[in-house]
Design a protein that fits this description.
heterodimer; A: 373 residues; mainly alpha; A middle domain of Talin 1; two-stranded antiparallel ribbon; 15 helices; 2 strands; B: 411 residues; globular
């Protein structure tokens, strides 16, 4: 009898403090949050405008690459470098959405595997033979390969010489143009798919199961945050997985002064996605987000709203990033502790999101750590 | 250590029994219980009796071969076959010490006493299977190195940021080869050769061990050495200074059994299996020193059971991860897992049922599994279905005490 009373009390307390995930009734298999509206916000206000923005930046880069290869000069080099950076920043906004066509294209890897394989690129250029469709060329294309071709060939004059007086000058130009058009083609394929059926499939796939669009998007988001952002941009260069620092593994190794900028862009996009913020002022949020989903479920951890804990933790991570040098190669070489501290703060949100958030949302993690061979 | 502790008791006992003639005369025989040492260290006359450099040599040879299987520009069918069937002095490896050795991997493939001494036919078939992987890698895959793989077309396929090189049927021959060697070479030698009484007790091994008659000018008895050779197939890739205490780096010391004992051990469902294996190796070796052959055999049984289990767990694991990749349409990831699984399936042949001393899986079981995953359609792994992978997984797990779900949740 006593046991029963305690049990009832416990249940009551649990209900009041809203520990329960299914907040209204035990019989309902899923919650009542409007997943359709959530998917609509993601598709129409974040993902599709994000890709459109990248596509537009890539078109500008493409024009700059035409201009540069026609007249390689200090001015045209400056322009293509700037347009490359603008496109790279735009890429950071959509890199987390590796679903649908992007997933089958292996999109993120096609555009951003680093460190790039400079030796292989040199080989392709000197033999004037390459095929960017081959998976084995994945580390010789995308933004990091362009980084090498614009910043990794020596001084500005030495760089220009490669595109003018070098015996392989025409090959350098063709390779650079091929890199840019390949990124354009891949991006346009993803956009085409969203615009021709995938959006409708996506926003109506509201089931809360492994094949549901919410589960898939959140898994893609978590995988991105854990592997591409936390590990790729910070942990790997800081030596978290190797025992010693890997300064050559920073994002944008040849133009070393933008590694921090790219990380900041990526983390802003991550926070924006969590809070459901529209890609630009033209695409205002409809208010549906992971943040509001957690709040609707009254998800609490240690007495605080989980959504606030996650947002607060993002701010802590930003405050660590602020202390970093723009140049991450310098940072890990001279003061790796700050890089490791940044990693630790990013890692705390892996726990809050991958464990606590996914549990609250009843989403199973669909990826495992790679085998390593 | 035990001796030092027991000595005063022994003396005291003698003293008591000699100095009094009361009727309570108890003659305590100083039985020295056999206890495994803290690490795998055994000595005679203050010098180590442990030696397994031959196993290290063969493991290093096998490592070079599996690297060579991916070296399309520097290796050929002939050079790879020569590495596998190395002859003393031939310039097959990058390491001159391996070239100078008279040992080879092929001579110890499907070569255990218990399984193959009277079964040269199957031994020869299995050796040919590995030869054939090499031949097909060189003749089907190497020429298509820069071709994109498709059903019926060998070539490369993306697996995340990695690139896999597959046969026309989606099989990575190098993976089938490497994971197949874990059974046919490493485990067969441990389970069915060096841990078997037919090898440990051969000729006059027992009487020599009973009388501490060492092997020629060596510091070990033959029986001690045979046991160490079993140990060496699991720990021969460990740097020499850590070979007596190898668990801290379990999983990192080779691409063969060490690696997969480590991976199995990191699954919470099977945590501790590495320690169990190490403990059985130590206690069995101590039992040989203590001349307690029942205790030795009991440890051999533990090792045979645990290692047989590791092979089966990994087979099921890769079939299951391959299944989820197939279901999400990621053929590159699926082919890599299923090719590893294919190798582990062939390795099942070398597991051991310790009740009757034969394999837990017959030749026809294994042939059936391999055939099943390659014949759901005309193009092998391109066509394999989740149902087929589940059916094989269930069949394997049904012969053990673990479930498919437990094996699948490993990493």
């Amino acid at each position: 009898m006593k046991k029963n009373i305690i049990y009832v009390l416990f249940c009551f307390l649990a209900f009041v403090s809203a520990c329960g995930v299914d907040d209204n009734s035990d019989s309902q298999p899923t919650d009542s949050y409007d997943r359709g509206a959530l998917l609509l916000n993601w598709a129409d206000n974040i993902i599709i405008p994000g890709y459109a923005n990248l596509s537009q930046k890539l078109n500008v880069l493409e024009i700059a690459s035409e201009d540069f290869t026609q007249v390689p000069a200090v001015e045209s080099l400056e322009v293509i470098r700037n347009t490359w950076l603008e496109a790279y920043k735009a890429f950071q906004k959509i890199s987390m959405f590796e679903i649908g066509r992007a997933e089958t294209l292996n999109y993120r890897n096609r555009l951003n595997v680093y460190p790039t394989n400079a030796q292989e690129i040199d080989g392709y250029i000197s033999s004037n033979t390459w095929n960017l469709e081959l998976p084995s060329t994945i580390d010789s294309q995308g933004f990091p390969a362009i980084d090498y071709l614009l910043y990794g060939l020596g001084t500005d004059q030495e760089t220009l010489d490669k595109y003018t007086t070098d015996e392989n000058a025409s090959s350098y130009k063709m390779y650079l143009l091929d890199l840019v058009t390949t990124m354009q083609t891949l991006t346009n394929e993803v956009i085409f798919d969203w615009q021709n059926g995938y959006r409708e499939t996506y926003i109506t796939n509201i089931s809360s199961s492994a094949s549901g669009a919410v589960d898939q998007t959140v898994n893609a988001f978590m995988y991105y945050y854990e592997k591409a952002l936390r590990a790729g941009k910070v942990g790997i260069p800081a030596g978290v997985f190797s025992g010693s620092t890997l300064p050559q593994n920073v994002e944008s190794y040849y133009n070393q002064f933008v590694s921090k900028l790219l990380l900041t862009q990526a983390l802003s996009a991550t926070v924006g996605f969590f809070n459901g913020e529209g890609a630009t002022a033209d695409f205002p949020s409809n208010g549906f987000s992971l943040n509001s989903y957690l709040n609707a479920l009254n998800t609490v951890k240690n007495g605080s709203d989980l959504s606030s804990l996650i947002n607060d933790q993002f701010q802590v991570a930003f405050s660590k990033i602020e202390l970093l040098d723009d140049n991450f190669t310098e940072q890990v070489t001279n003061d790796n502790i700050k890089m490791l501290e940044t990693y630790d703060e990013l890692q705390r949100n892996v726990i809050l999101m991958k464990v606590d958030m996914l549990q609250a949302l009843s989403i199973d993690v669909n990826y495992i750590d790679a085998d390593g061979d | 250590m035990e001796k030092l502790v027991l000595l005063p008791i022994f003396i005291a006992t003698l003293f008591v029994s000699c100095s009094s003639d009361d009727d309570n005369q108890v003659i305590i025989e100083p039985i020295e219980p056999i206890v495994a040492p803290a690490d795998y260290t055994f000595t005679r006359n203050n010098e180590s009796t442990v030696s397994f450099s031959g196993q290290s040599t063969r493991i290093f040879m096998a490592e070079e071969i599996i690297s060579g299987l991916k070296a399309n520009t520097t290796q050929t069918e002939a050079s790879l076959l020569a590495m596998f069937d190395h002859q003393e002095g031939a310039d097959d490896f990058s390491d001159p010490l391996l070239n100078a050795s008279g040992k080879s991997v092929r001579s110890k493939t499907a070569a255990s006493y218990d399984y193959f001494i009277e079964n040269a036919t199957e031994a020869s078939e299995i050796k040919s299977m590995f030869d054939n992987y090499i031949t097909l890698q060189a003749t089907e895959v190497f020429p298509n190195w820069d071709v994109i793989a498709a059903p019926g077309v060998a070539g490369q396929i993306a697996d995340g940021s990695s690139t896999r090189y597959v046969s026309p049927k989606g099989l990575e021959y190098n993976q089938a080869f490497a994971k197949g060697l874990i059974g046919a070479f490493v485990s067969d030698q441990i389970l069915n050769n060096y841990l078997s009484p037919s090898v440990l007790d051969a000729a006059d091994n027992v009487s020599n061990n009973d009388n501490d008659v060492t092997d020629g000018d060596k510091n070990y008895t033959v029986m001690e050495h045979k046991w160490d050779e079993a140990y060496g197939y699991l720990f021969g890739g460990v740097p020499e200074e850590n070979q007596s205490n190898p668990l801290p780096t379990i999983g990192d010391n080779d691409s063969f059994l060490n690696k997969y004992v480590g991976k199995t051990n990191s699954d919470p469902d099977f945590e501790g299996i590495a320690q169990d294996i190490f403990d059985a190796f130590k206690l069995g070796r101590a039992a040989i020193v203590g001349k307690d052959y029942d205790l030795r055999n009991a440890q051999a049984v533990i090792l045979q059971q645990k290692i047989s289990e590791v092979i089966a767990i990994r087979a099921v694991y890769y079939l299951q991860t391959g299944k989820s990749s197939i279901e999400s349409g990621d053929f590159g990831a699926a082919f890599h897992d299923l090719s590893e699984g294919y190798g582990f399936l062939t390795s099942l042949r070398f597991t051991r049922d310790t009740q009757n001393g034969t394999s837990i899986f017959t030749k026809s079981d294994v042939d059936g599994f391999v055939s099943d995953i390659m014949t759901d359609g005309p193009n092998g792994l391109w066509d394999v279905t989740a149902e087929t992978l589940d059916a094989i997984s269930e069949e394997i797990a049904s012969r053990y005490s673990f479930t498919v779900a437990q094996a699948a949740s490993s990493n």
